[in-house]
């Protein structure tokens, strides 16, 4: 409880830019999640198979992978806030195509636009938060951002899960003709699109880029005390370290791409659930993960970022195997909730680790390259998983994912543990110097 109270107190000290950006990002997450929770079911209603769904997600993540480097440069050049406006406009345009047309061409064009928008969003979020937060509070800023995004996704899952069902029930009541499941999904997309537009409102309170400022920096970015400015310099950086970041995220992406886009298909086909019940399960997962993320800074401060990451990845493996093996609905739901919490708690931790070990003038580029490795691996594995599920059922990808997660955990431990130990010694030495100066 004390960790959560400390966390909430920290949040009140965030800069206005950070708070508004986190709020906007969570609202965007709400709008996107309200569509994504039933999107796979919508495609099934349109008589597309699982391999088509896998191809759709592969096009989306593949587009992100291809455009990430360009998106990183664009974000550095035009500023983080403007980049986020473009992200919102792109998602709105992509889902508009999905609402208006049901052809393969329109659906894949939607995947392309959403993928491009996701690339720009990925290249913008982490550098913006890093540039507008104090060194001492970055663990809290990153976990807060991820936690609020999950809360937005949580409400979006429930809203989007029950929205098509509600529309089908309301149509005869208000005197309209009865609508099919496919039509209810389609109109649900239209309603959810308005939520994406609303997420632009908090951005209006973010101060625009200052002249002669560093790329992406904001006018009211948090000033750095002298001691923190020293901490902000990476202990060790360079292409070799950046390649290790990419390899790690590549392994995680290979595993995640096999299962994450298909969780709604998993519960629908294995247990016959409708979109409403799937949305409730997704909501529970996000609640548990959001609360868990509030405790993440306390865990990483005590045990270290890398040890925490490795432990959480290894702890997720039994739950992954249960999802692949068990036919018990309750066991599979619990396993899904635990796997989701353990793996998503890692994201803000590793993002912060990357940013604090990257040179200031290369953060946007390195972030885009690392995200490129993640998206490229997800593109390939998502496509493969769609074929595997079509031919061998929904369980097989979970075993393969467990292998990738195990490899990622071992790689992180042997690649980054020594660097983190050196960083702790550096910070301890600086703290001693500051104490002596007092």
Descriptive overview:
- The protein has 438 residues and is mainly α.
- It has one domain (16-203, 227-437): MFS general substrate transporter like domains (Growth Hormone, Chain: A).
- It has helices at 2-12, 16-45, 50-78, 80-100, 104-131, 138-173, 181-198, 226-231, 239-259, 263-271, 275-303, 305-325, 329-344, 346-356, 363-392, 396-437.
- α3 packs across α5 (104-131).
- The model is unreliable at 209-230 (pLDDT under 50).
Summarize, please:
The protein has 438 residues and is mostly helical. Helices cover 82% and strands 0% of the residues.
Please give a handful of descriptors for the protein shown.
mainly alpha, Growth Hormone, Chain: A, 82% helix, single chain, 438 residues
Tell me what the CATH architecture is.
Up-down Bundle
**Helix/strand structural class:** mainly alpha
Provide the CATH superfamily.
Answer: MFS general substrate transporter like domains
Give the N-to-C terminal Cα separation.
33 Å
Count of domain modules: 1
Helix-strand blueprint:
Elements: H1 2-12, H2 16-45, H3 50-78, H4 80-100, H5 104-131, H6 138-173, H7 181-198, H8 226-231, H9 239-259, H10 263-271, H11 275-303, H12 305-325, H13 329-344, H14 346-356, H15 363-392, H16 396-437
